[in-house]
Amino acid sequence: MKAVVMKEVGGTDVMEFLDWPEPVARPGHVVVEVAAAGVNFMDIGVRQGMAWTDIPNPKVLGVEGAGRVLAVGDGADEFEVGDRVAWVYAPGSYAQRQSVPTASLVKIPDTVDDRTAASAMMQGLTASHFATDFYPVQPGDIALVHAAAGGVGLLLTQIIRLRGGRVIGRVSSEDKVAIAKKAGAEHVIVDTEGQFANEVLRLTGGEGVNVVYDGSGPKTFKGSIEALRRSGTFCWYGPVLGGPGPLDIMSLPKSIKIGYATFMDHIHTRKLLLDRTKQLFDWLGDGTITVTIGETYRLADAARAHAAMASRATTGKLLLIP
Ligand SMILES: NC(=O)c1ccc[n+]([C@@H]2O[C@H](COP(=O)([O-])OP(=O)(O)OC[C@H]3O[C@@H](n4cnc5c(N)ncnc54)[C@H](OP(=O)(O)O)[C@@H]3O)[C@@H](O)[C@H]2O)c1
Questions:
Q1: Which among 72, 128, 129 is positioned nearest to 105, based on CA atoms?
Q2: Which of 12, 156, 183, 245 is most deeply buried (CB count within 10 A of its CB)?
Q3: Closest ligand 1 atom, CA of 263?
Q4: Superfamily of structural domain 127-264
Q5: Helix, strand, or coil here: 227?
Q6: What are the pLDDT digits (tens) for 84-132?
């Protein structure tokens, strides 16, 4: 079969589209035919050697997708050949077929198509955790959402609105403004230099926001703190783009609460994965929320998808179609 393999740590040039051994259904795993694989910012981090370093190179990139069960290993009886399934945090998705541990796998209801399911796993579960657990948004709350036209940003904005919250988005270019507004952002600030805080304060009558969701790297960190109101919450979640470095806790203003939301803490039990994906699929199935697929690429063009995402030119979800 064909797969996108990183032979070593590096830029997009280390990604190769080549023949790779067929997966087998080991105990506790199923083999799936991949219908769509999600591209996530974390895949860029994996390629750059920031994550999944315990899996030796060469290795197949990608951690998310949707498709159909082809073979079931011992002890994987929750699933049957032919089931439509989606998965997240299971390495090796940039491939025609993949062996996925059942712990990472859920069934897709008939109301949700494969591409939508593949788009919602990482970014949707992240967004729903951020708005319901990390900071449970209350009606009337105002949130600042960075990269508001991106994969996480568009879903997060919709879920905040669903809970009665209001959203100020921050994006890097004018052409992303309408996309963020369509998802429900009331105001969208265009900024790449960390100069957004005064505008947020102006829009909130000098008060600042209840919560800021920031996965946009060191440049936004200071402004995000300035944009918070007293006792506001800072949800930091951008390990690939990087953090602010060591922090003196006594330098933090306004009694703010600050934390790093890591993906595996969102869905650290099977029950959480099942409950959260069910809620997302219900919302997606009845149109309460939607995913925006910004672009689909052939598997062979995965390097082009990574380059586009890193260039800040993309919006919504990027998918690879084997
Ligand atoms: N902790 C978690 O659980 C978790 C889970 C999923 C994703 N994430 C993080 O969430 C963020 C978004 O991920 P995603 O997969 O949904 O991607 P995405 O938002 O679809 O794309 C990344 C966005 O980040 C911004 N960006 C790209 N390169 C940048 C750079 N060099 N400097 C500053 N901003 C840049 C761009 O938005 P603008 O150009 O509009 O600023 C771009 O749209 C990433 O930081 C990712 O690591 C964290």
A1: 72
A2: 156
A3: 3
A4: NAD(P)-binding Rossmann-like Domain (3.40.50.720)
A5: coil
A6: 999 999 999 999 999 999 999 999 999 999 999 999 999 999 999 999 9
